[in-house]
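Protein data sheet
==================
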Amino acid sequence: MNLRISSLSVLFTAASVGALFVAGCSDASLDTSGDSVAGGAITSVDGQPLEFRFRSEVVANADTPVKNAVIAQLEYLQGILTTGSRANAQFRFVDLIDSSAADADVSKKRFTYTASVAVIYPAGTTVPSSYDLALPLDVTSLDAFNEKYDGKCGKNEYGRDVFWHDFNPTASGCALVASDVVRTSAVVRKHPLATTDKYPEYDQVWADGSLDVVAVYGAIATSDDTDTGATDRESFLKKAEHALANAARKDEEPRNGILKESTVTGEIAIGGETRKVKLTAFFVQEVKSGSDEFFARYSAASAGADVVVYSGHSGLGKNIAALTNATRATKGKYQIVFLNGCQTFGYLGPKMHEDRIALNGADVDPHGTKFLDVIVTVLPAYAETVPTEQILFDAMIERKKSYTKLLELFSRQQWNKHLTSAFGEDDNTFVP
């Protein structure tokens, strides 16, 4: 089967899955009694939502904000968790419960902090009560760290500059110099905001009497009609045409980095009323190097969209960042964003949420989730029997499926489980 998204090619054995299930010197003084955890609520079916909470230190340039320094350090969590436990962390949403700074030298600061990070483990896997971590201490010298330990503590798959992707401190022969790393032990608990009974806000999706879907497909291997991205896009368009009454399709001429752009419009009867439906679908080589015209077209389309879908390579996070930076919102309008690429749970940052807080006001939308739900993948995403964005489209029309049911249906289409998860749904109120 062709890969939808290529990423980790390693095979995980029972030994490697258990390698980091160790109960090191967890800090008993850490307060894990509260429900204020990073990333908010999470729904998962193939995965177990957890919270990792730990004390740590990081050295950074004196003018670097502490959260930026911590995120640069925690990027290595992705390698640790994927190679050791086939899990992943939502580290870009890290919650710093407290932090303090001291001079390390004339140009650097040493920050001490307590972090809360959302993690997804594979369902059915034994969860440890604590998890030992070894992270690079000085984020001003990550190039030197990568050069020193690449090949000894994991082997880079995509280049030494992204060694964090494959960092494995439990690899055979890995001997980390004490001064290069900070060692800590995370207290592990079930995510206190994990949900099983939340629904997309279907009433808000249809509040204006219409459904507007925007889908972006990135090329997987080629840029022609045989590419998986191109064929999945065409399949979605045809599905919409068949599902809608009075369907009309418009295909734009390729231009300025937009390999394909098509729109299907039509109508559907819901509750005795005729509702309008629109699907706009793009095909591009890669989002991170998209043209100004593509971003202008996409941004304008996404501003009014009820559902935004991306299907393609994550580009080690660069495609995800480029797309979400260009995603627009409308004040008071609810939106679902589905990022169906490799490990988007770890790659996604809080930009879309921050935009919504600014747009709607912190008093109305303090976490940026009142009008936004996000569906992400925890592990590498591969080709699916039925592209899952089509299942999401059906659910928008049917208006009955919970996130748990949706993710169960997604899982059935995946020969290699993506551990697809939804988050931001804790403030949803819709019930069928």
In short: The two ends are 37 Å apart (CA to CA).
